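Q: Hi! First time doing this. I have a protein sequence and I read that you can turn it into a structure. Is that right? Here it is:
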Amino acid sequence: MADQVQRLMTVLRFGRFELDIAHRSLSESGKILHLGGRAFDILAVLVARAGQIISKDELIRAVWTSTTVDEGALRVHMVTLRKLLGDREAGRYIENIPGRGYAFVMPVQSVEDGESSSNVQPVAIPKANISSNLPRLAGRLIGRETFVEETARLLASSRLVTIAGAGGIGKTSVALAIGEILSESRPVLFVDLAALTDGRLIMPTLASLLGVTVFSDDAEPAVLRALEDSNVLLVFDNCEHLILEAASSTEDILTATPNVSILATSREPLRVSGERIRQLPSLVIPPEDATNADWSSFSAMELFIDRMMLSSDVESFDRPEDFETAASIVRRLDGIPLAIEFAASRVAHLGLANLANSLDDPLTVLRRGRRTAPPRQQTLRATLDWSFDSLTPTEKSLFEYVAVFAGSFSSDAALSVSGGRLSEDDFYEAFDGLFLKSFLSVSAGDGSYRLLETTRRYGLEKLEKSGQSDAIRAAHAVYCEKELQSAEADWKVLATPQWMRRYSSLINDVRAAIQWSVDHERDADFAIRLSARSTVLWAQLGLMNEQTKVVEQALARLPGSKHVGTRIELELRISRGGALFHVRGFPADPEALAEFDRSAEIAEALGDTSTFIRATAGRASIWVSNARYAEAIDMALKLGIRFPEMSLGSFSRMLEHGYFFHGNLKLASDHVEGSLRDAEGSLRRTLNDGVGFDQRIISRAVLIFVKFLQGDTSEAFRELDSAMEEARALDYSISTCLLLFLTASPIAFLSGDHKRAGEYLDIAETLTKKHALHRWSLWVAAYRSLISDGIQRPETEEIFHSAVGMRLEYLLVLAGVRAPLEALDRGIKGEGGWCRPELLRIKAKVLNESDPLQAQSLIKAALDEARRMEAPFWELRAANTAYELAGPDQEITARAKIKSTLDRVDGAYLTADIAKAREILDVGDL
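A: Yes, that's right. Below is the predicted 3D structure, encoded as structure tokens:
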């Protein structure tokens, strides 16, 4: 009875199928079907919950209990199941519910004990004597050593391994290398299926290679008899165009023989029971910041240089500019070996630089390969034609549609651009086909997909010829607009890293969609709208230079359009104001102010309070940058009175900077706390205000400097290390530059750690160059000179000649006694209370020899100002200098001032000033 209950629970019937869960078998009309372990588990979960929608995530968790996989793995097995079960007269068994998951939709019944039985008898096997016929590799195999070794080991335990991958990825070369290793211990027979046009010729071809003479129409029995007791490894190369027949022949051979193994190469898996699939990746390409010192660690570079030197008269390759050019070439070619070999062979004719500049049309440039190569590999286009011809008509159409995506995309995104041209069933069938045939690569752990660039260019050509290009590109532009709207909404609710993962790659598609809209004048209104929507993306990614061009292009089309005075113009104006502030620097401040004024005007007319505050915050940032701190504070306070319903954090972001630079450390600290509460954790409740600073990073930058001046040095540097880590994770160049220039490098320098200050400056310089941030680039050279100890006074006069506002104040602090007296006077007369004690101290030292009485007066003022500010760091520096300037009768008083101040600073972090104070007091390291 217990056995019967167990059987009732574990054997389920649907249509002509029976699923025996206990014995892990699936049969159709009594015949056992071959089904892989993962596919069986997926089917078991679906059938056990027939009629219910099961999400993709839930299926993955149920089947891959101890392994992390992406949606692509599930998709492969789902396609296998759907093809195995097929479309029956009664309908499809498994339905894809878009956006929700999968459901088993056919009726399911339990099976009574004894109702069903099935058995497959093994086939007997004789002997054969087979010689290897492996072709030789045309050249040295580069970058595949590990893959080859692992696959060779896998064939010791698995009888069927398929190397899958895109055309030109090197599947045949890898298979030959594997065969060469295994030929030492077993015969290896290479079967080139690319030469066949009819799948019915596979067995006759194999018979010929085995030396078997066949007199009947059916060669299979003779082939199976010849393989009976053999342990041969059959290499079935290029199965994709004969995939059904190749799969059938493979299955028949493996079923009929106990020791034969098969290594297949194909763009798509054979989907045969027991198949182990190894996806062959592209070669490793160097990242953007790689140097010529480590090029050999990137296999794509190694292949390019090796083949280039073989096909040209280049004898050495060690110039940094050559490395950068070659690196850009292999990146553009996605690390595809065949494309890289074609490119390397063209260097002799075009030269390295011209080749790189010609890769916008890779299909034309990379048109000649080895004459001895198979016809399908003699040009890059021939390789792609070969692969394209293996697609079904629906797969071909969908391939052309998804070629419009310049970046990664999801299956839902691909469905949206198909615009109803395909039914959902046809779409998912075709999408699965493109994935399995290696046209689509998995882009990241988020389950998105992408086309390799050369494949995408080929697809765009096909799309243009189809006559549907404009319609598909229009659908793509609409998709981009919807995604941008979601990006803006999600910025306020998603953690920053999560938001970046979700939307950062959208920038490539937005670029393409905007350019297409601009090129089509009839879509001018849409181009303006899309440019305005895109500002959220440019701003958060810190791409201000590119943002300026896009926004100005849209504003040039604005007059006479329906968008004047609307939210569209508002977004464009406020975006341009922020971009001008960073990209064009101080000379563009009047233009930026005008954009913020117009933004405030439109926002007020629309009743948009939050954007009105953003525009005002932009103005405040410019005032602060120009050292007009009192005006910036007044502006923020008036906003608070006018909009009492807004959160304190909305105004704290303006006030924290204003109060700090004006010299009120306590109020600055209070408002930092309010601002940080408003940006608690990694969520951002507002868009970057005004000129695009990240709320949390700038607040931390202010707080770190406040703690530093208040004498809490150890805590300040702990906070700085943490803020730097957060800034790196955020990867937002503008906020990182602010942290580096206004806090990190200055406090490291002031503490006496000039090496650390220089390292921070190196990071800042890299960012300003990469993102063309002109405002910050003006700081780099001056900082570099001032941080160097060898600078002479004549050089400083040039540095200070054009320095104004906040930048003047920072440069004076770093220059110290090297600063020109005229510049010091300008700084002291300004509103920069934050550094006034230091500027007074510096001037006292400069004037001590010529006017000692005034020097004494200045140092007293410096001490008084530092005490008023409650800034022990400045006070200790001033006290040390007061001792240096003191006469013999003043030394005791001066030492007492040092002792009093030293007691109020953190002695655990040994700054240069603390060391000096201890030396004066003769207390050493106590």
